[in-house]
From TrEMBL:
GO molecular function: peptidase activity
Keywords linked to the UniProt accession: Hydrolase, Protease, Ubl conjugation pathway
Name under which the protein is recorded: Ubiquitin-like domain-containing protein
Organism this protein belongs to: Apatococcus fuscideae
High-level lineage: Eukaryota, Viridiplantae, Chlorophyta, core chlorophytes, Trebouxiophyceae
GO terms classed as biological process: proteolysis
């Protein structure tokens, strides 16, 4: 129906214009169009209202096209008619959830705005729709879209009205506020006005968002700094006030926290934006204040605080970064730290030591690094994490990272010294822990706090042992140790493996090997079996998708079992040159064996904790990786060859009982001696 009516009026205008002037034709057709619009609006159906708004568009369009002919008379008449009959108000009453209807209404409003004829009551009506609790989300979004489209054409008075409306509803959900802010930002032309709203604490989060939107293009950095630096001080003070509120404490109903947390995140985001936009760095004083309010207040925003500092790392002055790392060392609880806190700490640890030239990386955010020395700021806190943290995932990450701090070195000639330092530090910490454990274990009763300390000391022992074991297995040693490990000094299980040669025309063959054989020994056996005349070290052994390149390990340690297949290939000359240039390196177990009292300490640990399977198991693994304890074999040989009696021999593995008469067996000593 509408198409037919519109076509009829279009043709009528053309026919009348041929017999008279266009102004007269427009005047006559306008009367019919206005009557048609009123008739359509008298119905309650959507299709009739859609026809009305479309014809209103056509009415205004023809009037604007006729301005040259009638000096704007037709447009003035039609706009006045729209106002007198409240047509725009009728168009805004319903159907704003329908996109095709909204598009037509938006065109009408745009034409009126350009003409300067959009009334404030029309904006009031639109705004009121967004304030109603029962307004559908689709209607709100459509209203926001219309306001955004009108943005560039509104008068200053209308702009002020919109901003006042927005400010008056600061208790809105932040999501709604931000939707509208993105639109209002297109209207305003005074960033100083926004800054004043921040300074006066009037709808500050809203004003901040608007201020960011109003500075999309670079301005003079000096002017920006003059404006933004004082604002940053105000923002930090606001954040301190928010974080001090009891509503942010854990356990408070989430609804009460939501707005405060949203505002806090808006403030934090603005700080980083202002620093970047104004090309200035945040000072040490600001950094410490932010750390205290975001992280140390014990609020529910702590994880957001960690993310803020991790993301904003490069927006702080170098001295501020160092001070923040010191704050982290002194204030963070290593026992309860989570992954967000660890990520934040690690970013500052890396940055500070890069600044001090104690580490190097490929790029600022690269996880790959190498160290120049062991005087690293913050390393002691990583030790605390390894020994005490409750989160097992974080413990493993911290343990592996600590291992890399001692083994990822710039100068490989220093690698042995760094590894030796790691071994000695582990022994020192183990001795401290076992002394405390033995002291507390000798007491008849312990208060609860000392019981917790006892458990912590036992955990520190187990984790230090675990660090040594991980270091023993992961350190890249390419040569077989001169002194065989304890587990490799005796014959293991005989198994048969299949070998696939690299040479064409050579068939696979079976090889009988000892599971306690070093990889280098197996390499020699394979070279002899296939008649290879070159250096056996030039052969590569591939097993289960990896290369068996660590000659300090045995088949058992590499989990090679009977019936499995191993592939053989040749190393490149470049690889050989690299290996030849690498300085000789002793394994962690060999270095451990060379430290005075290490065997006695490990055997004592194995015997001192009969109920702790973890400590006993790791201790046994370390003892098996170390060369056989020479004192045991020497004393055993002296006892056997010197004609000593059984009681003298038993002193190797027994100790006096509590009554000094009975003798209790040192289980670990006895097992080790028998092996």
């Amino acid at each position: 129906m509408y198409i037919a009516a519109n076509s009829l009026m279009t043709h009528a205008f053309q026919i009348i214009a041929c017999s008279s002037d266009r102004a007269s034709a427009a005047e006559q057709v306008d009367k019919v169009q206005r009557a048609f619009i009123l008739r359509m609006l008298s119905f309650s159906t959507f299709s009739k209202h859609l026809a009305a708004v479309r014809e209103t568009n056509e009415l205004l369009k023809r009037s604007m096209e006729s301005q040259v002919d009638d000096e704007g008379h037709s447009l003035q008449v039609n706009v006045r008619w729209l106002q007198e009959h409240g047509i725009v108000k009728e168009l805004l009453r319903a159907n704003l959830h329908q996109k095709q209807y909204v598009d037509q209404v938006q065109n009408v409003l745009k034409k009126l705005t350009v003409r300067g004829s959009l009334q404030q009551e029309h904006l009031e009506m639109l705004w009121n729709l967004t304030e109603k609790v029962d307004t559908f989300e689709a209607v709100k979004n459509n209203v926001y879209s219309m306001l955004g489209d009108l943005a560039g054409s509104l008068s200053e008075e209308q702009l002020n009205l919109m901003f006042e409306k927005f400010q008056s509803r600061s208790e809105w959900p932040l999501a709604d506020c931000l939707k509208l802010l993105d639109l209002v930002a297109q209207l305003a032309d005074s960033d100083q006005q926004c800054k004043q709203k921040v300074d006066d604490d009037e709808s500050a989060p809203a004003a901040l968002h608007l201020l960011k939107a109003l500075l999309p293009h670079p301005k003079d950095s000096g002017d920006l700094q003059d404006m933004l630096v004082p604002t940053v001080d105000v923002i930090v003070a606001r954040m301190e006030e928010i974080c001090a509120q009891p509503l942010l404490l854990p356990g408070t109903p989430s609804g009460a926290q939501s707005m405060l947390k949203d505002n806090l995140l808006q403030y934090a985001d603005f700080l980083l934006w202002a620093s970047t936009k104004g090309d200035f760095l945040l000072t040490t004083d600001l950094a410490v204040r932010l750390w205290k309010c975001l992280v140390m207040q014990g609020t529910s925003c702590q994880d957001q605080g960690y993310r803020f500092f991790a993301q904003g790392l490069l927006r702080f002055e170098p001295d501020a970064i160092e001070q923040l790392l010191l704050e982290m060392e002194s204030t963070l609880d290593a026992q309860t730290l989570g992954l967000h806190g660890w990520t934040c700490f690690l970013a500052y640890f890396t940055r500070v030591n890069l600044q001090r030239d104690m580490m190097i990386t490929d790029t600022d955010d690269s996880p790959r690094f190498a160290v120049r020395g062991q005087v690293l700021v913050g390393k002691e806190f990583i030790w605390k994490l390894v020994l005490t943290c409750e989160n097992m995932t974080l413990y493993e990450e911290a343990r592996n990272y600590l291992f890399r701090l001692y083994t990822y070195v710039v100068d490989e000639r220093c690698l042995q010294d760094y590894v030796l330092q790691l071994v000695r530090e582990c022994l020192d910490r183990m001795r401290q822990a076992i002394d405390l454990v033995q002291l507390m274990s000798s007491l008849p009763m312990l208060p609860p706090e000392q019981e917790m300390e006892l458990l912590a000391s036992r955990q520190a022992l187990a984790r230090t042992l675990d660090l040594l074991l991980v270091s023993s297995n992961q350190l890249p040693v390419r040569t077989m140790p001169e002194r065989p490990m304890h587990s490799a000094s005796t014959e293991g299980q005989q198994i048969s493996i299949t070998v696939l040669p690299w040479m064409s025309g050579t068939e696979r063959f079976s090889l009988s090997v000892d599971t306690n054989s070093y990889i280098s020994v197996v390499r020699q056996q394979i070279a002899a079996k296939c008649g290879y005349s070159g250096d056996p070290a030039s052969l590569r052994l591939l097993f289960m998708g990896r290369e068996l390149a660590n000659d300090a390990r045995t088949l058992a340690m590499e989990d090679v079992k009977g019936g499995m297949t191993m592939q053989m290939a040749l190393k490149s000359q470049l690889k050989l040159d690299e290996d030849a240039a690498r300085p000789p390196l002793q394994t962690v177990p060999v270095l451990l064996a060379e430290q005075a009292g290490s065997y006695e300490l490990l055997l004592e640990l194995a015997d001192a904790f009969p109920q702790d399977a973890t400590i006993r198991d790791i201790t046994s693994q370390l003892l098996n990786l170390m060369p056989t304890f020479p004192d045991i074999t020497q004393r055993l040989a002296e006892a056997l060859l010197g004609g000593q009696n059984a009681s003298a021999l038993s002193e190797l593995w027994t100790e006096a009982g509590q009554d000094d008469e009975a003798a209790s067996v040192k289980a670990a000593h006895l097992k080790y001696t028998i092996e």
